[in-house]
Design a protein that fits this description.
Strand 2 and strand 3 form a beta hairpin. The chain has a five-stranded mixed β-sheet. The chain is built from eight helices and five strands. The protein is an alpha/beta fold.
């Protein structure tokens, strides 16, 4: 049984007992139906696909150097991107953050076309989300322009699927998760995982509040 299933069952059980006055004798049919609906929703709700992109720097001239993806089922994809012709900008301050040297990139990075094709095969006709959409979308467009093929999926801002309640607890939840993980590995796949897990935790927390308010 998954963590989400265990949490959903525990939440439903607690609130059913409260609805029945602690007797568990099933005297609150309306509450029972509502809890059944919440439980089923919790099990069916799949986390969003998250994309994160690391770059050579910020501003004019910067370009993508790594892309990380976490799918709704938890599968991950990550690849370094070899600099395309004309991609010469390099920010040493950015390197200190992502810890990817240009030499490492040139040695192990995959061509833009290969990475772009892999993303298209992984995300056909799907919508992925980014918590840094303003810059990530620009770098993604650069990748596909260099590859010379169209994007087969959409990238949207994470804020589009965040409720106000989730936003209110987002930073505190993310900080707690990072403390649990015990690391600050600023790489694309790790960052994508952190965003997806933070989304799931905030969604569960706000869903529980909604049940409690009924």
């Amino acid at each position: 049984m998954s963590v989400a299933q265990t949490w959903a069952i525990s939440t439903a059980t607690i609130w059913q007992r409260r609805a029945d006055g602690g007797t568990g004798d099933g005297t609150a049919p309306r509450r029972r139906v509502w809890l059944c609906y919440i439980y089923c929703t919790m099990l069916r709700r799949r986390p969003p696909i998250i994309v994160d992109i690391e770059a050579s720097g910020f501003g004019t001239g910067s370009y993508p150097i790594e892309v990380g993806v976490v799918l709704s089922d938890g599968r991950k994809y990550c690849s370094l991107i070899a600099p395309a012709p004309g991609w010469t900008h390099w920010d040493e301050d950015a390197e200190r953050v992502h810890c990817v040297s240009r030499d490492l990139l040139e040695a192990y990075g995959k061509p833009a076309l290969e990475v772009a094709r892999s993303l298209n095969e992984l995300l056909p006709q799907q919508t992925a989300y980014s918590d840094g959409w303003v810059v990530d979308k620009t770098w993604l467009d650069q990748l596909y322009f260099a590859a010379g093929i169209p994007i087969a999926f959409s990238l949207s801002a994470l804020e589009m699927i965040l409720s106000e309640s989730q936003m209110e607890i987002w930073h505190a939840t993310k900080d707690e998760l990072l403390r649990e993980l015990g690391q600050q590995r600023h790489r694309a796949s790790f960052d994508a995982y952190v965003v997806q897990e933070t989304w799931q935790r905030t969604w569960r927390a706000t869903s529980a509040r909604k049940v409690a308010a009924e």
